[in-house]
Amino acid sequence: MTIAAAPVMQSDLNQCRILIVDDESANVLLLRSMLEREGYTDIVGLTDPNAALAAFVESEPDLVLLDLMMPGIDGYQLLEAFGRQTRPGDFRPVLVLTADTTTAARRRALSLGAKDFVGKPFDIVEVALRIANLLETRVLYRRLQTLREAR
Fold it and tell me: pTM score > 0.90 for this model?
């Protein structure tokens, strides 16, 4: 069995780096606690959206959990900035977690590169499952890239 055909294990997911960006410290704490309970250990949590782009570039997260409505730089601006910092063809998923659940907000976030969208308040189990699904896709993407580079 090749590495690409090997099943994705929870341990593969738990090694992924996750960046949380939300101006509400309670939300960052809630998400961090949930992730730690699920076994994730490489978590960067920010409440200052102005520091998010530098953290994205520096930490190269496998997944970003992003609020949209923040002072100064909002989530939409960050989605655009993350897109400019991501290599063409790279898959670096962003899960938007926001109180703005309007159709316009969903469409705009998804059109700017978000891969999933969840409204606040959210179901913690559902968010954990969505995170695992996005990270599984990220792990499979990285395996495919490794195979391509080996050829």
Answer: yes
